[in-house]
Amino acid sequence: MSDDLSIRLLQINAQVGDVAGNLQRVLAAIESARDDGVDVIVTPELALTGYPPEDLLLRPAMTNQVLNALSEIEAASQGLTVVVGTPFPIPVTEPNPWPLGAVTAGPPRLYNSALIYTDGAHVARYDKQGLPNYQVFDERRYFEPGHAPVVVSVKGRRLAILICEDVWVPEVVAESCQGAVDCLLVLNASPFAEGKHDERIRHVEHRAIQNRCPIAYVNLVGAQDELVFDGGSFVIDAVGGRVGQATFFEESNLDFQLQADRVACAQQAALLSPDEALYRALVLGVSDYFAKTGFSRALLGLSGGIDSALTLAVAVDALGADRVHAVMMPYRYTADISVEDAKQQADVLGCEFSVVSIESMVDDFMTGLAPFFEGHPIDTTEENLQSRCRGVLLMALSNKTGALVLTTGNKSEMAVGYATLYGDMAGGFAVLKDVWKTRVYELARFVNRDREVIPERVIVRPPSAELAPDQEDSDSLPPYDQLDTMLKRYIEDDWSPEDIIADGFAAEDVRRMCRLVDVNEYKRRQAAIGPRVTVRGFGRDRRYPIAHRFKA
Amino acid sequence: MSDDLSIRLLQINAQVGDVAGNLQRVLAAIESARDDGVDVIVTPELALTGYPPEDLLLRPAMTNQVLNALSEIEAASQGLTVVVGTPFPIPVTEPNPWPLGAVTAGPPRLYNSALIYTDGAHVARYDKQGLPNYQVFDERRYFEPGHAPVVVSVKGRRLAILICEDVWVPEVVAESCQGAVDCLLVLNASPFAEGKHDERIRHVEHRAIQNRCPIAYVNLVGAQDELVFDGGSFVIDAVGGRVGQATFFEESNLDFQLQADRVACAQQAALLSPDEALYRALVLGVSDYFAKTGFSRALLGLSGGIDSALTLAVAVDALGADRVHAVMMPYRYTADISVEDAKQQADVLGCEFSVVSIESMVDDFMTGLAPFFEGHPIDTTEENLQSRCRGVLLMALSNKTGALVLTTGNKSEMAVGYATLYGDMAGGFAVLKDVWKTRVYELARFVNRDREVIPERVIVRPPSAELAPDQEDSDSLPPYDQLDTMLKRYIEDDWSPEDIIADGFAAEDVRRMCRLVDVNEYKRRQAAIGPRVTVRGFGRDRRYPIAHRFKA
Q1: DSSP states along A65-116
Q2: Residues of A with CB below 8 A from B141's CB?
Q3: Contact present, A538 and B46 (Cβ < 8 Å)
Q4: Which CATH superfamily is domain A287-477+520-525 in?
Q5: Beta bridge partners of B268
Q6: Are A545 and B367 inside 8 Å of each other by CB?
Q7: pTM for the whole thing?
Q8: pLDDT at position B481 over 70
Q9: Is B377 helix (H, G, I), strand (E, B) or coil?
């Protein structure tokens, strides 16, 4: 036996609310770790409840289940040390550290904790101090902050524990590393966003160097509603070297050893290119949404355009071609090449493909509506009607067959409301909801890196909704490269329209697009959820009033 | 001149984001107050931005507008004292009172403040200490807490200032009232819920008595998205007497005088019955949503059932009969009496009424879908199709005429998913979204208190969705009085199904209904917003994951 301390980071896919299932995951990991001679195992943040459990945390029954699960883990921890992330009810004997905590009467008062068990006994409890309450996070809705570091000794090594946000607060890290700590273990539930993994590594390297302390970062993996957790757990040594890197977007154990004079780790998974990371985030977003809601088959409208083409590619990679049904629903404005291209992609991918014309349905509605429309000029009403007939068809197929409808709109369209509520917005999961149109094109190229999955013509032809004769997106929107940049600055960076104009964009375009963003909040509020992959998605992340008169 | 101090509570309807407009409201109030010889005016919480401004607070341009508005108020405060609620950027010279505040980099760091100006000069600033971050509130997302009471002297009277949540924290009230305070002024943005006003009065009376200090409570009025602020500002004297009461659901000034030995107030508006309060909350919810989003006309499907009947009554009271269009869309399962009753109510109210059959549209979809439906039994797909054809019709009328579609589902239905996504759920505002079915019946009786607005037959016939032959709600749901009680306990009180069963309900019903609540979160997530009138509505108030496996 060496004096090395062997630590295993459990990069697991915990399911929200499934305390029994998550407990089984941890118990199984304890078994294997003991078999493998591992000394310490560490789960991600809130591994027992999944992340984020949201208002399930307000249910007293949830707390009871968690406490029972912890008893089982405690009993199972023979022969090793288990560090498990979990909500924990604040013991009534502890003073309320939150001056105004008493205000929120009713639900259980909780910490976001890590429980540490060794050899069948409770050793310590660390309570998360930094509670993020911004972006998609609402932790101060549920938790009260802890107020002290925790260091435990295992085989003579001193291990400090932190949870997620804590490691981003220099003072908290420094306090935890005081007094010859041998390794800092950080339990995380850090969602994916483009560039986020680089940011984590850079930051944690900096903290390791500054505190001369190795840091092990274990992240959750798996998708939960709009969040995608990318895994990619890693270990940084005391001089800032990334000595171990787990894989991304899949469950994995990352084992490392604290040796006398170094941190050793055999696993060094490759980092992903930006396109591959984004694409795999979307694929995991879809596959986990289906797995966790119990759907097995997907249905989508394939229009011959690039958004539905990319959505189909993602769906097939997530679910398999035999579980995806693409439906082309032509109308008189649909170009022949749209039908051809749609069929070609479905054939290449080998998924079910159907064509259902909406001609007679649209005409029937127009007949019924004629008395009301008399004297009114043609406008977007007629376009929306086509889109809604398609929505009704897809939903009927969905209801009858149990397949979930995927919507295909991208972030640029969702931003300016270039979509029909109850039409192309009808569906359960919006795959590209947080992907800018310019990234849609880049991902289409990524999909085609080895073979032409998406017909080249779909990528190169001018984008069109095909809801009116000879319609092109550029009739009503600026070119997408310009549009995406101005929208990013308005939506993700909170620039004012004047700032964006000063940066060199056409004033009229900027004002019109920002206004479209403002007035289309009502559409986004009724949109399907979809995977968040940017720093600010249209979901829990961006909370705007519908009725407001703010003009920046 | 007496030594009395005259104070005016400004129960105003501030519009979210409309800093310029809200500034004008305050400036106008300053003018009249000066004319009326008032010494002190007090606005509701965040009067300059409206409440809740949500993520508009993250925009630096909003902060700039607020600071400019405050300069104007300061200059205008000649001859009196102005207490105005507003977000306020934390001066860089002030230490960060929040140990982990540095984590949330980027957006402006703000207090939720009351600025006090007298005679053209800044006198003091109070920063809210209790920041609610539960139910519909997200104040810790935007604000950092203040840490000290503020007392200002006006004409020798000592006035302490608190903001909303603060008054619910006994320690904070006690600290503010130390040292011979003559009156506590509380700025509020307290949303309506059934029974809430009684709770406010009881609590504030208690605080007044305990601290031997009069308390003036000024509340916002008006609706903002799903929140309805009911106004009802009031003044409690030092022995707990409610000496002044403003009206409800409308703008109003409440004037009172601090005299040598008493608090005097001439206004004592009547409290409202529970039914009247709820009904007026719905009416204000509708009228303000239209006013604040710029819609002038409403459209709704009138089915002959009680939900759409009540929705129509509310819409007509909110907007006037000439701005409401009721559309009956019969199919073969629609009873003749449904068409008759719908027409009768529209006639009584004097609003536009149309009949459009969905027969041919439904048949056309069935024809197009026949190849896919072959071999599948009839199920709810066919029911949803009828509902969706109605949704398409209403949305086409809405798009063409600019009228906003009101949806008519109630809270009991939204809870168990007894509604069709993109069908009867299609629309911009869900009037009864937070009204339990049993309350729908009570409100229908309230509407008919003076004359039969809602045909008696609509109230007494067994409820039915009329989507299949001889269908009644009771075929698939427990009686509504039982259903509502079990749902309230599950949804509003966080009871587990076992607790509800133990309380005397049929186990099978309870388990089935709770499961329906769980699995229909995806529908609610895409539902239109509607006025929150209970302690836990289906909006910002209840944040549940869609994909979860929690079983209580």
Answers
A1: HHHHHHHHHHHH-TTSEEEEEEEEEPPTTS---STTGGGS-SSPPEEEEEEE
A2: 133-134, 138, 543
A3: no
A4: HUPs (3.40.50.620)
A5: B245
A6: no
A7: 0.96
A8: yes
A9: coil
What's the token pair of residue A13? 């896919």
Sign of torsion, CA B420 B421 B426 B430?
positive
Q: What is the DSSP letter of B103?
A: G
Q: How many angstroms away from the CA of A241 is the closest CA of chain B?
A: 25
Beta bridge partners of B114: B85, B126
**What is the token pair recorded at A536?**
């600010």
Q: Which two tokens stand for residue A490?
A: 């308005």
Least confident range from A180-184, B91-95, B225-229: namely B91-95
Contact residues on chain A for B537, CB-CB shorter than 8 A:
none
pLDDT in tens, B374-430: 999 999 999 999 999 999 999 999 999 999 999 999 999 999 999 999 999 999 999
CB within 8 Å: B134 and A104: yes
Q: Indicate the SS3 state at residue B326.
A: strand
Select from B100, B132, B551 the Cβ nearest to the Cβ of A103: B132
- Reduced to 3 states, what is the DSSP secondary structure of residue A237? coil
pLDDT tens digits, one per residue of A442-451: 999 999 999 9
What distance in Å separates the CA atoms of residue A17 and residue A256, rounded to the nearest whole number? 30
Task: Express each pLDDT in A295-315 by its tens digit.
Answer: 999 999 999 999 999 999 999
Cα of A534 to nearest chain B Cα, Å:
16
The answer to whether the CB of A217 falls within 8 A of the CB of A235 is yes
Asked if A45 is an active-site residue, the reply is: yes
Contact B19 A389 (CB under 8 A): no
C-beta separation of A102 from A96 below 8 A: yes
The answer to whether the beta carbons of residues B67 and B89 sit under 8 Å apart is yes
Q: Which of A493, A524, A550, A551 to mutate to test the interface with B (most CBs of B within 10 A)?
A: A550
Domain ranges of chain A: 5-89+108-267, 287-477+520-525
Question: Which of the residues of B are catalytic?
Answer: 45, 128, 164
> Which one of B18, B64, B103 makes the best mutation probe of the A interface by having the most chain A beta carbons within 10 Å?
B103
- pLDDT of A179 reads 83
What does residue A502 show for φ and ψ, rounded to 5 degrees? -60, -20
One-letter identity of residue B166:
D
Mean pLDDT of chain B, nearest integer: 95
Confirm if A50 and A16 have CB atoms less than 8 A apart. yes
Using a CB-CB cut-off of 8 Å, the residues of chain A touching B547 are 15-16, 224-225, 288-289, 292-293
Q: In this structure, are strands B157-163 and B151-154 parallel, antiparallel, or unpaired?
A: antiparallel
β A252-258/A5-11 pair status: antiparallel
A521 is catalytic: no
CB contact under 8 A, B550 and A172: no
Strand partners, B8: B41, B255
DSSP reduced 3-state for A282: helix
Reply yes or no on whether the pLDDT at A39 is more than 70.
yes
Q: Mutate one of B127, B293, B366, B526 to test the A interface: name it (highest A CB count within 10 A).
A: B526
- CB-nearest partner of A54 from B15, B360, B544: B544
CB pair distance less than 8 Å for A373 and B18: no
CA pair distance A507, A499, nearest whole angstrom: 10
How far apart CA B407 and CA B398 sit, in angstroms, is 13
Query: Under CATH, domain B5-89+108-267 is a member of which superfamily?
Result: Carbon-nitrogen hydrolase (3.60.110.10)
Whole-angstrom distance, CA of residue A510 vs CA of residue B142? 27
pLDDT, tens only, B141-188: 999 999 999 999 999 999 999 999 999 999 999 999 998 899 999 999
Q: Quick check: helix, strand or coil at residue A191?
A: strand
The answer to whether the CB atoms of B421 and A426 lie below 8 A apart is yes
Residue B492 DSSP code: I
| Tokens coding A142 | 């549920």
